[in-house]
Amino acid sequence: MSDTGDKAYQVLARKYRPETFADLVGQDAMVRTLKNAFEADRIAQAFIMTGIRGIGKTTTARIIAKGLNCIGPDGKGGPTVAPCGQCEHCVAIAAGRHVDVMEMDAASRTGVGDIREIIESVHYRAASARYKIYIIDEVHMLSTSAFNALLKTLEEPPAHVKFIFA
Questions:
Q1: How many other CB atoms are found less than 10 A from the CB of residue 88?
Q2: Rounded CA gap, 148 and 129, in Å?
Q3: Domain 18-165, CATH 3.40.50.300 — does that match?
Q4: Residue 45 contacts residue 163 (beta carbons within 8 Å)
Q5: Domain limits of the chain?
Q6: d(CA 107, CA 105)
Q7: What is the pLDDT of residues 122-161, one digit of tens each?
Q8: Sheet containing 132-137: order of strands
């Protein structure tokens, strides 16, 4: 028996996974760009993360989702590059159980039918958060017809929707 008490076991990669933009290593330009956009209230409708496998694209996408929906410990905050990690939205996104942040693995769901699910749900407003965020992981694996189906929604998304491609 360990002396850690009631702390649950956590895989090393998850234990030290970045939780804020300040924790990201080597992403100063991206963080500065996002900070300027958030401060000017000019947040893009879609973000594309690029890089080799394991560099942190999906982790960065989750941090962006937290920053977009963070309300701060007092419940009055707006989009920020310094998510609090304490509000209901930050906690739920970190745990992967936020109702308004949908994560789709495009490596295993590559078809038009999978994208149509997203297209149909885009029209509904976020249930509890500021934005409804779609994180599409391994987006390069989508079929051509799936990309074509998503194109119209990407060109003219509702104001309450943000896409993050990792």
A1: 14
A2: 28
A3: yes
A4: yes
A5: 18-165
A6: 5
A7: 999 999 999 999 999 999 999 999 999 999 899 999 999 9
A8: 46-48, 161-165, 132-137, 101-105
